[in-house]
Structures are given as structure tokens and as C-alpha cells.
Amino acid sequence: MMMEASFDTEESFDDPSCLAPQHLGSVSPAKRQIKEVKETKITINCVTFPLPGEGPEQQLLKPSEWSYCDNFWTDKKDPQGTTSVAGFEVPLQKQLKGKQMQKEMAEFVHERIKIEEEYAKNLSKLSLSPLAAQEEGTLGEAWTQLKKSLHDEAEVHLKFSNKLHSEVEKPLLTFRADNFKKDLKKYDHHIADLRKQLASRYASVEKSRKALADRQKDLEVKTQQLEIKHANKAEEDIKKARRKSTQAGDDLMRCVDLYNQTQCKWFEEMVTTSMELETLEVERIEWIQQHLRQYTTLRHETDMFNQSMVEPVDKLLQNVDPAKDRELWVKENKTGDVRPVDMDI
């Protein structure tokens, strides 16, 4: 959509923040005194805004909250600057981006699960290794416990991976999985349809404005002709031109009134729908926060379980006694305690 702008006077359009349109007045524009008035409003892409510094300062609908309903009224130019995107599209696209981010987080967790599963598999395999199986004594007991702790640790990591799948990955994948994009399209089409209606009303206003200008010019020409040449026909032409001018003014008032009604309807729906998108975003962030916190909780639990697996190993290592091991080994493997003596002659 190309950026279109037109300027209006104080009598042209109402403030769209009103919930009910106001009429321009009962007096036909053709009967008003024509005078220069200060431009106070501008219409961009068929939406009317107050000019900066003109009229009373608008108050935010939700002050201090950076709410969607206060910050996306103006259309946004694309990077090339040739077309524009409706302001409503910005928070709408945020929802689509959020859905993609949620999916990528689930993929990340899935990769984490694969690492845990592979780690558990390797730990379990290593715990069955025959390496140093012949170590004896208190050191042998500690070594056996260390190998057993690998098997127990493997079980902990396997359970961790299973819980990651059920309590983190799956919720991230299934959150708003059904019809979410269709629901967003409904929002998009609803607001877009209202903008199309507004554009149509604006086109009617501009057409009526041109028609009024043409009728007023025709009336002015005929009035000048009457001043030059008095004739009954000229007076009749003036009366006819004045009626047409009055009718054109009434048509313009009607078109402006319909435009204002349509703009107020668009305004109301923009506020309502923007707030719905804002609520959806809050829910999305809180949902992800909840399940990422579950990830950290499971991670802490895994660390605690792993610590409990190491504690028996720690205890046995503290009890390793070289003297005791020497005693046990010697008792089992000694070949005799009688020492050699000198030979007699």
C-alpha cells in the first residue's frame, strides 16, 4: 500500500478515540462561510490522525504499560520504503515468531535429551568394563563401588532424559499446536477487512469533496455571469447550481459521517484484538518460563542424585588403608614367614 496523506481542517473529521461518531453539524457546507482555517489533522493510508502539537494531548489507554493497544496505530514502512505494513501486523507477526521460537526451543531440548541418552548409554557400558577388576582390598572395594556408581548414574541420566521429554520438550511442542495459525489469520483478516472498509469510505469522502468543490466552482462562475449579464435564465441557473452545491455538501457530510463510524469501529476492534494478542504473548512467555524452570529443577535433581551416587565411593575412598590392604593381600598370598638363616659348616 502506498503512503497517501491528505490534510483536513478542524471541521472535517472526529477524533477516532471516541466510541461514537459525532456529526459535522446540520448546516450544509455550501451555506457555510468559506474561510481559511488551520490544518489540524492528517490522513495517512485512509486513517486520520491529529497533527503533532494540535488539539488536546491524547492520553494513553494503558499508561506506563507499553501496551499493544497504544503503540501500533501507524503503518510501518518496509525496508525499501515503497510500501507499508499495517501497524497491527507487527504484534501479529510477533505471535508467529514466538511460535517458531517455541518450536526451536523444543528442538534444543530434544538435542539435550539425545546427549543425555547417549551419555547414559556410555556410562552403563563403561560400568561393565573388566578393567582393574582384579584390584583387591579396601582399594578394590572402592573401585568396585565407583564402577557401580557409573551404572547408577546412567540410570539417573536416563530418567532425566525421559522427564525432559515429558515435562519440557512435549509441552513446548504441544502448546497451541491446534489451529493457532488459523486463529491468527482470523484476527488478520478481520482487521484487514475493516481497513478495506475504511479505505472505501475514505474514497467516497474524497469523491464527495471533489464533487462539492466542482459544484461550488460552478456556482461561483454562474454568479459572476449574473453580475455581467442580468437574465432570468441566469438566475434560474444560479438557483439550480446552489441546490446542487447544497446537495453535494450534504453528500459530503453523510460520507464523512460514515467514514467516522467505520474508523471508530476499526479503532474499537484494534484495541480489543491488540489486547487479545498481548494476552496471548503473556501466556506464551509464562508457559515457556514455567517449563524452562522445570528443566532447571530436573537438572538440580539430577545433580543431587549424582552426588548421592558419589558419596558411597567417597566414603570407601576415605577408608582405603594401604596397611590393611597389605595385610589382607599378604595373608592370602604369603608363601611362608620363615626367613632364611646362615648355613652351618
Commentary on this structure:
The protein has 345 residues and is mainly alpha-helical. Helix content is 66%, strand content 5%. The protein has helices spanning 68-71, 89-127, 137-174, 180-228, 232-318, 322-333, and strands at residues 5-8, 41-44, 47-50, 76-77, 84-85. A hairpin with a 2-residue loop joins strand 2 and strand 3. Helix 2 runs antiparallel to helix 4 (180-228). It is rod-shaped and about 175 Å long.
Features:
single chain; 345 residues; mainly alpha; three-stranded antiparallel sheet; two-stranded antiparallel sheet; 5 strands; rod-shaped; disordered N terminus
Mean pLDDT: 87
- What is the beta-strand fraction? under 5%
Order of helices and strands: EEEHEEHHHHH
Main beta sheet: strand number and arrangement?
A: 3 strands, antiparallel
In angstroms, what is the radius of gyration? 42 Å
Give the strand line-up of the largest sheet: 1-2-3
N-C termini distance: 125 Å
**DSSP summary, beta strand count:** 5
